[in-house]
Amino acid sequence: MSPPVLGVILAGGLARRMGGGDKALLPLAGSTLLDAVIARARPQVHTLLLNANGDPGRFARFGLEVVADPVAGFPGPLAGVLAGMEAAAARNPPLPWVVSLAADTPFFPADLVPRMLAAIDREGAALACAASGGRTHPVFGLWPTRLAPDLRRALLEEELRKIDAWTARYRLAVVGWPREPFDPFFNVNTPEELAEAERLALRT
Q1: Radius of gyration of the chain (CA)
Q2: Sheet-wide strand order for 97-102
Q3: Residue 173 is part of which domain span?
Q4: For the domain that residue 52 is a member of, what is the CATH number?
Q5: For the chain, N or C: smaller number of CB within 10 Å?
Q6: Cβ atoms within 10 A of the Cβ of 181, count?
Q7: pLDDT digits (tens, 9 = 90+) for 168-191
Q8: Model confidence, pTM
Q9: Which band of pLDDT confidence, cut at 50, 70 and 90, is reported for residue 20?
């Protein structure tokens, strides 16, 4: 039975370092970055959505519901988290948890969601984020849907943009993974990193 978690893949960025366009659609190992992320995410969640702005038709072949940022002006990943929270709250029945996943990180852990859920339960935390090698990766977070109104207020009224500034308001469980044989949170921001992802994909 899948956990009561809605997964939201964050693909709403501008990909400036890759020359613009949809980074998620870049080729990787005969498919795309987004294909790799979907394959990792699907077994871990009840429902999977894609957060992206503009014409959703360009993602039609992936068969995912596409939700745009609910806050204008490309305010960053917290807007995608809010999109996921509000979509989870609208389900019947509502899903109590949202996991956010970066569209440019194709090798994130296959046990991401169960370990985060366990850490929140064990530590009595409100939410969780991932870490590796002593470095946190706040884009990979597990968020309670009940906090959607608070996050919407913070984005609109306070113009809050930094994930760390948001998570600092709550008890946060940090869940770590090893960086060997490679960092599972390796992400693609440059053509050189895309080439490295291709090499890693052939090894895994």
Answers
A1: 16
A2: 65-67, 47-51, 5-10, 97-102, 135-144, 127-132, 172-177
A3: 5-203
A4: 3.90.550.10
A5: N
A6: 9
A7: 999 999 999 999 999 999 999 899
A8: 0.94
A9: low
